[in-house]
Amino acid sequence: MNANWQEFLCASGAHIDQDLVADFGDAAAELLAGAEATIASPLVHLGVIEVGGADAASFLHQQLTSDVKHLADGEAQHSAWCSAKGRMLASFLVFRSGPSYQLQLSADLLPAILKRLQMFVLRSKVRIVDLSDARQIIGVSGPHAEQALHAAGLALPDAALRCTASADGLVIRLDQQRFEVLVDNEAAARLWQALLPAARPVGTRVWQWLDIDAGIPLITSGTREEFVPQMANFEQLGGVSFHKGCYPGQEIIARTQYLGKVKRHLYRAHSSSPIAPGTKIYSPASPEHPCGMVANAAPAPSGGYDALAIVQESFAAAGDLEIAAPGGAHIDLQPLAR
């Protein structure tokens, strides 16, 4: 987290815990507000890599799972970067504003992904830069999110996964009520204060819960190289193209799709016990080996913890799954639409 941004947030009442904004004084009330009201949240768990240069589009098209070449200016798409075995090294929200492309990903993966991407540039005319210390990301969500952003002087996209540039930042519409604003450091504090008359400040974990509620998984250091994209529902999110050329893991991903061999799927999950990304899930029917893994987790407004979990389909319906170890705390699953 940028030191100046952290200092400003702390002066504004934020409590920092493990490099996240834990809350602004009342974590439980903030979670309830995230589910019902209009909120603003510092998305310090995310980072941004910019890829520019004459060959940026073709370079990313050959590396990522999505169809980057057809990503128009002002559009965003989900995507992933995979190993040769088809396992996700990182998940991205890729967006384009002008000639460059920006890759939003989990901040704990950014240094390794940045270094690895740079290894593949070779003779391509590509420039790869970490923007995380120069720009901040603010999430705005709720029934009056549009009004809050308009009042702060921002122009809004008219459809999901579209972007609009303003003097104070780039606005990305995620869905009907959720937006992200990327803003330069010098304008971040001013924009934050402009949002607060209409939006309650909340901790980062509230936004993580909103992502879980929306069914949007995020690959982190705890789940790196654990899932093929179809396990994480990325083909449903538009994050996988089956009509483009080769990219790392493409053969395995395509074979998985066309032969129908996806045995693990994404589910919403709930547990009364704390859970975290990478927590293994077990079934009493086969306690020797885990049957699934938590992808993302956050405190739930109603108590306990909500999560997105990837679980072997043959065990998911039994209703007797346990977390962390055989005999561990119970975890409930609900299927996502596929």
From TrEMBL:
Ligand binding (substrate): E180
Transmembrane regions listed in the UniProt entry: none
Domain GCVT N-terminal per the UniProt entry, residue ranges: 41-234
InterPro entries xref list: GCVT_N, YgfZ/GCV_T_CS, YgfZ/GcvT
Native species: Candidatus Accumulibacter appositus
SUPFAM superfamilies given in the database record: Folate-binding domain (SSF103025)
Domain of life: Bacteria
Name by which UniProt lists this protein: tRNA-modifying protein YgfZ
Gene3D superfamilies: 2.40.30.160, 3.30.70.1630, Aminomethyltransferase beta-barrel domains (3.30.70.1400)
GO biological process: iron-sulfur cluster assembly
